């Protein structure tokens, strides 16, 4: 079961289609998939694919669920996709129940937190508010880069340089939006920092929840903060990487 995108509607409408597996594989029997971000184990509820739409993969589904970029999904199909997610989570229920907390990657859109609440309700694992984690400002990001890191590949150095130049033209207190940054630059960024009192996390197991796995930089950054407090971490994404 995949997704269809109706481009002749405004906003563009996303639906499920049981006759193919284009863009996103949503069948319960074919999910979840697994991947890694560095040493962090990641469970992906639904698997993205370029089949059927190489330029757009499964992003329209996330766009529709978030209500952004001109995409929408009707309540019937939203309920259907979340019903499938419930079944997929149940298939790994024992594994997920071993965690002490579920924590959402901080996001300006409500879907990631809503999904974390959904995961918490489905698994019975308590939700840990991520209020002690915040996105870095432009000034904080620039403070970490006096020059282009040596780890940046030669073919990506120009894109990285453009990003640094763009940040230098912005007020230091401006928020950084990862989705506006080149995917060739994101893997070298650490986009989150701590804010306010940090709860006691030593010895806990935390499941980081994100909406979509792309470069993995957001998960890695949040994981680094939690690991520094003595927590063991894994991650759960609504949509896989490609």
Description:
By secondary structure, the protein is α/β, with parallel strands linked by helices. 30% of the residues lie in helices and 23% in strands. It has 7 helices and 11 strands. It has helices spanning 59-66, 75-91, 93-97, 111-123, 138-143, 157-168, 217-228, and strands at residues 2-6, 12-17, 24-25, 33-37, 40-48, 71-72, 101-104, 133-135, 192-194, 205-212, 232-239. The strands form 3 sheets. Strands 3, 4, 5, 7, 10 and 11 form a 6-stranded mixed sheet that branches. It has a 3-stranded mixed sheet with strand order 1-2-6. A hairpin with a 2-residue loop joins strand 4 (33-37) and strand 5. It is globular and about 50 Å long. The mean pLDDT is 92.
How are the elements arranged and paired?
Layout: E1 2-6, E2 12-17, E3 24-25, E4 33-37, E5 40-48, H1 59-66, E6 71-72, H2 75-91, H3 93-97, E7 101-104, H4 111-123, E8 133-135, H5 138-143, H6 157-168, E9 192-194, E10 205-212, H7 217-228, E11 232-239
Parallel strand pairs: 2-6, 5-11, 7-10, 10-11
Antiparallel strand pairs: 1-2, 3-5, 4-5, 8-9
Main sheet record = 6 strands, mixed
State the distance separating the first and last CA atoms: 17 Å
Helix and strand pattern: EEEEEHEHHEHEHHEEHE
> What Rg is obtained from the alpha carbons, in whole angstroms?
18 Å
Structural category is alpha/beta
What are its keywords?
alpha/beta; globular; 30% helix; 7 helices; 242 residues; six-stranded mixed beta sheet; three-stranded mixed beta sheet
Question: Gist?
Answer:
The protein has 242 residues and is an alpha/beta fold. It has seven helices and eleven strands.
């Amino acid at each position: 079961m995949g997704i269809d995108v109706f481009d002749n509607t405004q906003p563009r409408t996303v639906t499920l289609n049981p006759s193919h597996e284009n863009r996103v594989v949503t069948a319960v029997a074919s999910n979840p998939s697994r991947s890694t971000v560095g040493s962090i184990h990641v469970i992906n509820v639904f698997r993205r694919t370029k089949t059927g739409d190489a330029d757009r993969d499964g992003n329209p589904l996330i766009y529709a669920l978030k209500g952004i970029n001109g995409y929408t999904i009707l309540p019937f199909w939203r309920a259907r996709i979340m019903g499938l997610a419930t079944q997929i989570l149940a298939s790994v229920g024992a594994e997920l129940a071993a965690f002490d907390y579920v924590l959402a990657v901080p996001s300006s859109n409500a879907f990631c937190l809503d999904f974390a609440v959904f995961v918490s309700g489905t698994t019975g694992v308590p939700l840990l508010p991520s209020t002690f984690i915040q996105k870095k400002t432009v000034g904080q990001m620039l403070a970490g880069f006096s020059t282009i890191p040596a780890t940046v590949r030669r073919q990506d150095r120009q894109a990285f340089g453009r990003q640094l130049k763009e940040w230098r033209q912005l007020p230091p207190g401006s928020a950084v939006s990862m989705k506006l940054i080149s995917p060739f630059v994101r893997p070298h960024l650490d986009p989150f920092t701590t804010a306010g009192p940090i709860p006691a996390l030593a010895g806990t197991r935390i499941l980081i929840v994100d909406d979509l796995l792309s470069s993995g930089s957001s998960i890695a950054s949040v994981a680094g903060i939690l690991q520094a407090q003595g927590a063991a971490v894994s991650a759960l994404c609504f949509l896989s990487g490609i």
